[in-house]
């Protein structure tokens, strides 16, 4: 199946979770937020939230500085 991950089209296995996408992009363990189709997914739901075919995932990391 296809999904957009941080603006890039990716082939993902059917049933891929948000947690798996976070790992796929190499995001750090802390300071990360995820949105699926424009809605924030709470960290507690990452493992059981499945990315649908055509879904749009944004993995955002906190950046310090000014």
Can you describe this structure?
By secondary structure, this protein is mainly β. It has a five-stranded mixed sheet with strand order 2-1-5-3-4, with helices on one face. A hairpin with a 2-residue loop joins strand 1 and strand 2. The longest helix is centred in the N-terminal third of the chain and has 7 residues. The radius of gyration is 11 Å and the shape is globular. The N and C termini lie far apart (39 Å). This is Sulfur carrier protein ThiS. It comes from Lentzea kristufekii. InterPro entries: Beta-grasp_dom_sf (IPR012675), Mopterin_synth/thiamin_S_b (IPR016155), Thi_S (IPR010035), ThiS/MoaD-like (IPR003749).
Topology at a glance:
Blueprint: E1 2-5, E2 8-11, H1 18-24, E3 32-36, E4 39-40, E5 56-61
Parallel strand pairs: 1-5
Antiparallel strand pairs: 1-2, 3-4, 3-5
């Amino acid at each position: 199946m296809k999904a957009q991950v941080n603006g890039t089209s990716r082939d993902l296995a059917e049933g891929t979770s948000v947690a798996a996408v976070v790992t796929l992009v190499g995001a750090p363990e802390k300071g990360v937020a995820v949105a699926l189709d424009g809605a924030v997914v709470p960290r507690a739901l990452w493992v059981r939230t499945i990315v649908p075919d055509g879904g749009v995932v944004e993995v955002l990391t906190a950046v310090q500085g000014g």
